[in-house]
Amino acid sequence: MHIITPLPGVFRPRSDTWLLADVVRQQDGLRDAEVLELGTGSGAIAVSAAKGGARRVTVVDVSRRALATAWLNARINGVRVVPRHGDLFAPVSEQRFDIVVSNPPYLPSGRIPTRGASRAWEGGAGGRSILERICSDVSQHLNPGGTVLLVHSSVNDVSRTLEALEDAGLRGDVIARERGSVGPLLAERMPDLEEEEIYVVRGRLR
Ligand SMILES: C[S@@+](CC[C@H](N)C(=O)[O-])C[C@H]1O[C@@H](n2cnc3c(N)ncnc32)[C@H](O)[C@@H]1O
Fold this sequence. Notes:
Blueprint: H1 15-25, E1 34-38, H2 44-51, E2 56-61, H3 64-76, E3 82-85, E4 97-102, H4 129-137, E5 142-153, H5 158-167, E6 170-181, H6 184-189, E7 195-205
Parallel strand pairs: 1-2, 1-4, 2-3, 4-5
Antiparallel strand pairs: 5-7, 6-7
Helix pairs in contact: 1-2, 4-5
């Protein structure tokens, strides 16, 4: 897979991107699935889903540059994505999917910005603002037996994500994890933290 990020302000894929892209590619039921990616950035995860045989991959982002980049990366890799501009589920409010995936902004921050490149990483209190919104709304956008796959860090408290999924009627579990050194933005905010773990959490509709 070849992914480029020629436009300024579009999130460059990192280890969390590739971890989720690999998990999605290996996901049971991906072949012929209707897939939604929330916050697509460069489109790397969406392209991975499309190359793994998804029937259609819809990608949502608040950044039009991200959507253009995802469209371009899909073309470069010989697949297609359907771009939709807007806030999380708003542009697909009437639609349901078999698999919903997201690497949301999850850096703990004082507030969620309304514009600029930092929308890609600022996650509000505990880094959980966008995560919580996805967990609470996702069941209304899943087909029976549908799955959500979310990636985030140990600083966001994975047990709260599992609880939020349970509260929304999904069975949650951690299906992949990777330990690594703390990235520069998190290190600035949490200078005492030496390591973080990245989790892929799966929620399945009960
Ligand atoms: C951490 S980046 C992940 C990008 C890409 N999926 C990846 O893993 O490399 C988060 C993305 O979510 C987008 N985003 C932030 N808030 C959003 C919202 N409320 N609705 C839709 N997209 C959002 C950002 O513009 C950014 O592209």
